[in-house]
Structures are given as structure tokens and as C-alpha cells.
Q: What sequence folds into this?
């Protein structure tokens, strides 16, 4: 029997073992493919490059879709990481169409095969401190992610493209049991799973806690959904956009507050107190990149309460607080949260399934989709905040 036939049989067996119900990729891999390369501020260009030969440890993925993140917006506007020219996109997912002979299993030990739907997490760089079961001892903030890699001779380095080359040594997960929109939400949802683990470490966040979530962009809305899924029943969401506050209720918030109707931090704090029946929040999640929002949030946390700050993925400037009144006198326990660990990814898959089981409309977070060639328009709409989560979806997947 020829080697190719043997490999095909093995892949079919692995597919059956994995429980996936998606047919294996049956198309032809082209010789060249497109990427959306950010070549200057606020300007992507569609470029075409030869698809490189894979090493024995590499995987070629046909991209199905990728969400636009706040980090992409910062890079689009200001290039804070100095990466231009760069192929961005780190909230992506797609289908394996080719892989090296050494590739057998994903980072959780699940079989990989042509036709499997996958997401990436980080490129591990042989760091022994970053493992699948590190129990959150270290987040992956110092590791590289696809979509924030400098351009090189491969070019297919980010998910804003037709294809992605996953290099050997990267974290990759088989998520064939999740639908397209759920797969696109894995990366941002993992941010909230990590934040929740950090918050739980304070010993303050409990099922019956009164929890305030400040900021109802995609991260804040996912925060509401994660809290609701874990059983928290008393959630107040705070934002300045009514349509986002309406959606926060659909995802599990009991009350919402539009901060635009309150002229001072003290007034906002009283509104939060009223939403909890005359009590300040036991715990709060700060999900905006606003230093003013960070300064205000201490005002509506009770004495002995807790705070998780996760809104500042890039330098958003200095915040002004009074350490005596805001932290010491109230004995507030504060934790910071940034990105996630590999373990958080595995938990995220379960969260997305659980959220769907209890009827939370997470897929509605993705309000607008664009094809790759309209990526500039997509980023401008993202900056205008007319939608919630904007995604680049391949044309054949536009209806998810």
C-alpha cells in the first residue's frame, strides 16, 4: 500500500476518534494566496505571495474568519508595537488543509488531521514555564501570537489572510465541535476566563456577589456572559452606549447604568449602589482602556471588596487615585489581568458550550462581517463603534 494511502486512512481514523463531524478538506491548495498587510497607518494592502513549503512540523490552515480586536485597532491607528509592515489578526480560525508528517496531536492531546477546524494560541519558543497545565502561574504575555509577528519570508503570519502557516512549536487546538462564530470568539473569551481566575484568587468573588462590570465593548460583554455562566446572579453593567447596555442584559446583567447621565464619579457610585438595592459592589471588573474609568471604579466598591483591572492591553496613560481613600481605608483587594494561559484556552471551550446551553446569544456579539478585500472599511467601522464585534469572514462563510 502506498504511503499516501496509509496516511489518508490514519487521518480518517483520527477524525472518527475525535468525534468531529466535518468532512476533510477536499479542495486544491493554490500556489499563491492573499494576505492583508498593514503597510502604513490606517492602510491595508492586499498582497499575494507564494504559499511556502511546509516543514515536517508545520500546518497550513485555510482561514475561515477572524475578529478585529482592540489591539488591531491600536496598531491600525498608531503602530504602538512598531510592526509595520505586518499581517495582523489573532482572533482567527480555519481548516487544516495540509500538515507536516510530524504533526499528530494538538496542545491538549486531541488528534489533528486534514479537515480539522483549529485555533492558535501562542508560539511557545521552547519556554518550559509555559505549559498546558501551568495552573495560571504565568500568563503568555511574553510569548508571540499569530497576528503580531514581524513580516518575514513566509508572510502568512496572521489570520487576516486566505491562509496561515502554523509553525512547529506553536500552541494549536482542534475545535471542530464549535461553530464558526464561537471559534472566532475563543481568543477574546479566553481573556475573560483568565480574568475570572485572577478574580477568584482574591477569595471575594462568589455566586451571590454583587458584581459591577465597567465597559460593555466585546470584552465587557463577554465578562458579563462569563459571570452569568459561572452562576453569578447579581450583575450591573456600565457603559455610555444604550445598545450595548441592552445587549448586556441579554447576556445576563440584571441592571445597566449609562454613565453619561451622571456628571460625577460620586453620582455614578450612587447609581451603582442603587442598582444593588443600597449596597456598593462586592467586586468590580474594569474593562475599558480609559484612565478616568479606572479612577472612578474604586468609588463604587464596598469596603473589603475586590477589583480586577483588565482594560489596559496597551499603555492608556496614567490614572489618578487617592491611595488612602480608594485602597487603604477600604482595604480593597486589586488584581491585574493580561491575556491568558494555555489552560485558560481549554476552559474557554467549555465556557462557550455552556453559555450556548443556557441560551446566551454570544454569536450576536459579531454584528458586522466584511470580506478580506474590505478590511480597511472593517477597521474604520470598528473604530466608529457602530457595531460590537467586527469580523473578517471569507466570502464562502459569510453566513457563518
A:
Amino acid at each position: 500500500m502506498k504511503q499516501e494511502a496509509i496516511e489518508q486512512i490514519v487521518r480518517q481514523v483520527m477524525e472518527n476518534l475525535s468525534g468531529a463531524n466535518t468532512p476533510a478538506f477536499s479542495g486544491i491548495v493554490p500556489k499563491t494566496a492573499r494576505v492583508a498587510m498593514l503597510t502604513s497607518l490606517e492602510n491595508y494592502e492586499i498582497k499575494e505571495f507564494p504559499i511556502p513549503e511546509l516543514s515536517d512540523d508545520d500546518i497550513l490552515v485555510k482561514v475561515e474568519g477572524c475578529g478585529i480586536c482592540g489591539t488591531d485597532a491600536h496598531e491600525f491607528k498608531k503602530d504602538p508595537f512598531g510592526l509595520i509592515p505586518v499581517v495582523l489578526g489573532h482572533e482567527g480560525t480555519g481548516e487544516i488543509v495540509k500538515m507536516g508528517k510530524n504533526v499528530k496531536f494538538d496542545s491538549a492531546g486531541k488528534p489533528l488531521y486534514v479537515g480539522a477546524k483549529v485555533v492558535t494560541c501562542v508560539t511557545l519558543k521552547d519556554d518550559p514555564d509555559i505549559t498546558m497545565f501551568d495552573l495560571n502561574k504565568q500568563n503568555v504575555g511574553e510569548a508571540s501570537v499569530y497576528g503580531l509577528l514581524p513580516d518575514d519570508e513566509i508572510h502568512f503570519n496572521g489570520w487576516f489572510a486566505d491562509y496561515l502557516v502554523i509553525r512547529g512549536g506553536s500552541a494549536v487546538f482542534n475545535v471542530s465541535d464549535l461553530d464558526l462564530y464561537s471559534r472566532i470568539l475563543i481568543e477574546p473569551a479566553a481573556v475573560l476566563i483568565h480574568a475570572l481566575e485572577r478574580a477568584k484568587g482574591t477569595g471575594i468573588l462568589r455566586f451571590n456577589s454583587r458584581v459591577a462590570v465597567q465597559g460593555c465593548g466585546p470584552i465587557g460583554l463577554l465578562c458579563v456572559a462569563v459571570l452569568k455562566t459561572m452562576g453569578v446572579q447579581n450583575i450591573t453593567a456600565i457603559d455610555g452606549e444604550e445598545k450595548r447596555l441592552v445587549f448586556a442584559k441579554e447576556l445576563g446583567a440584571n441592571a445597566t447604568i449609562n454613565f453619561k447621565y451622571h456628571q460625577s464619579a460620586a453620582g455614578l457610585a450612587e447609581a451603582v449602589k442603587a442598582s444593588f438595592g443600597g449596597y456598593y459592589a462586592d467586586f468590580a471588573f474594569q474593562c475599558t482602556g480609559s484612565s478616568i474609568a479606572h479612577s472612578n471604579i474604586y468609588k463604587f466598591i464596598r469596603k473589603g471588596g475586590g477589583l480586577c483591572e483588565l482594560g489596559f492591553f496597551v499603555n492608556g496613560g496614567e490614572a489618578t487615585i487617592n491611595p488612602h481613600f480608594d485602597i487603604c481605608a477600604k482595604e480593597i483587594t486589586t488584581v491585574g489581568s493580561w491575556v491568558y494561559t494555555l489552560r485558560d484556552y481549554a476552559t474557554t471551550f467549555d465556557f462557550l458550550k455552556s453559555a450556548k446551553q443556557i441560551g446566551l446569544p454570544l454569536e450576536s456579539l459579531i454584528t458586522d462581517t466584511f470580506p478580506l478585500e474590505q478590511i480597511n472599511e472593517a477597521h474604520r467601522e470598528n473604530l466608529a463603534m457602530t457595531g460590537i464585534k467586527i469580523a473578517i469572514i471569507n466570502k464562502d462563510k459569510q453566513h457563518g
User: Anything to note?
Assistant: Residues 32 and 51 are 5 Å apart (CA to CA). The longest strand covers residues 32-40. The chain has eleven helices and 16 strands.
